[in-house]
Specification:
Blueprint lengths: L1 E5 L2 H6 L3 E4 L5 H5 L12 E4 L2 E2 L11 E5 L6
Parallel strand pairs: 1-5
Antiparallel strand pairs: 1-2, 3-4, 3-5
């Protein structure tokens, strides 16, 4: 299983904060699921607490984090 965690405004946008799913092949395959259709293209993606892109291969037990872009000042 893959654990997906949503942060900040993505919790309300996607309708969950934690979700467990069977392990797909890649992060892109996971995000192709209709439950993620509202996720903006500029979302920050992480797998096991390291930034990742949609080609990242996923394995059973991985944790995916979906975070809005941040800026500071």
């Amino acid at each position: 299983m893959i654990t997906v965690k949503c942060f900040a405004r993505y919790r309300a946008l996607l309708g969950f904060s934690d979700l467990s799913l069977p392990a797909p092949s890649t992060l892109g395959d996971l995000l192709a699921d209709p439950r993620f259709a509202a996720l903006p293209k500029d979302a920050l993606l992480a797998v096991n607490q390291s930034f990742a892109d949609r080609s990242t291969v996923l394995a059973d037990g991985d944790e995916v984090a979906l975070m809005p872009p941040v800026s500071g000042g």
